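Throughout our pipeline, every protein is held as a single compact record rather than as scattered files. The record that follows is passed on verbatim for readers who wish to inspect the format.
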Amino acid sequence: MLTVMLVDDEINVIEGLKVSIDWEKHGFGIICTAANGEDGYYMAMEHKPDLIITDITMPRLDGFGMAEKIREKLPESNIIFLTCHEDFNFARKAVNLSADEYLIKDTMTREEIYSALAKIKTGIEERKLKKKKANELSVELNRNRCQLSEILINELLKKGKVDTNSFERRLSIYNYNLSKQKYIPALLTLDRYIGLINGDLFNNDTELIRFAVLNIVEEILKKYDIGEVFPSGENEYIIIFNYTPNLKISIDEKITAVSKEIQSCISEVIKATCTIYMGIQVGSMQEIKRAYEEMLILKNYRFYMQDGLILYNSKREFNFSNIDFNYMNDLVKEFDHYLGDLNIELLAHLEYVFFEKVKRENVFAADVKIVIERLVNSLGKSVEKSGFMYRQVIQDSWVKQLFNIDNVYELNETFHRHLSDTVDVLKKNASYTCTPEMRKILKYISEHLQEDISLETIAAYVNMNSSYFSRYFKSKTGGNFIDFLTGVRIQKAKELLLETELTIEEIAMKVGHVNKAYFTKVFKKVTGSNPGEFRKKRCS
């Protein structure tokens, strides 16, 4: 509904307009009134009405004076002037003030007022539609600019050897300028990114986060005329500091100050800290790739550092170690044992000891995540054995989140939270999921997984008809039997892919799929990767 302010020093005029016009029917509502132009101005500043209907001759400030002041602050406001016969010439001045309409008080009719309201409403709707289309176009252009600039920066960082003049021309098409003498590549990432995108501020809108970060960084870089920013994958922003050396200015101090301002602004607007990885200075575009690759070693340091830092490529030694394979296997076995008893205290202690060990020994981040993946697989097996569908308890989204975390402290906190949540769910539901019938069903599935198990077969095995079995199974697991069986088969297939050297065809047979192509199709539908990709990605 559009809002209206009435301004007139004659109270009977205001009251008459209130009661004689069916405002709501025509899409309007009176939000405030004033008895003179001065009060009308302040009311307009407070309420920002869509339409102002005002007399011309009033004390303290007339209608024209009020309209001029309002238009300075609210240029899109709509104004209807009310005039008497003798003020008719003033009404022409109203047109010069860009009034939307003027009406003669003594002779105006409801039809004239309704006609004026309809005209104004149409104008407002048309302006809103134009603005919406302009915004949509702007968003689309920004999206295209983002996508194309990401292609450009990745080309520079991966190929390295580019024709400088040609590359600069392509950059200029999208209003980027990297034509100065020296370059320092940097990488910005938001800390605790997973919590940020899941929070109330962004509500999983990763595009909005990207847009906000790029706007903030671009604005600050332009303010100091010191480079450009490019998107590069999810939660990665490449900054190329670009400048001409000046003996009067310490470029290191300036770039540090600019980086701190970026961090401060992101903290204020996005409510998040960010880490900036800083490369070394190079003298040509062709060298940016090398400087960037050298800088990426800082990401290993980042895994063991706190949030909100600026990390410099200082060539310092930072000794990393690999996880001991035997230790990992023993850890998983112990984890499985405690998980079988749903003993959260011992599980939490085991988790604590593991994370303290990796922090003490600076274990490579990739190795730490391999262990976490093994533990998540153990959780998955425990969930399936308990009678739940894997996705009911362990969401693919949070599994993905774990492997996107780039900080050991956040990884520890997130894994502990999900471990506790999973054990809580299993504890609360153990009493009714592990009934004798359910144990019998699960045992049958486990022992006959490589066979063609149908709903009818297993229903007969537990002495139920198919319809009753379907209802019973859903009441215990929350899902249907076929989806549950598929989840068990795929979980087992994942174990075999990671822990054996069996061929994909052999694994398909072991989990009840005689057709390799169909198995591959189902596996990809559930996991997002085909079996070969899954094995290669996890074992590389």
Observations:
- Residues 161-312 form a domain with the Alpha-Beta Plaits fold (CATH 3.30.70.270).
- The chain has four domains: 2-108, 161-312, 320-422, 435-540.
- DSSP finds 24 helices and ten strands in the chain.
- Residues 110-159 form the longest helix (50 residues).
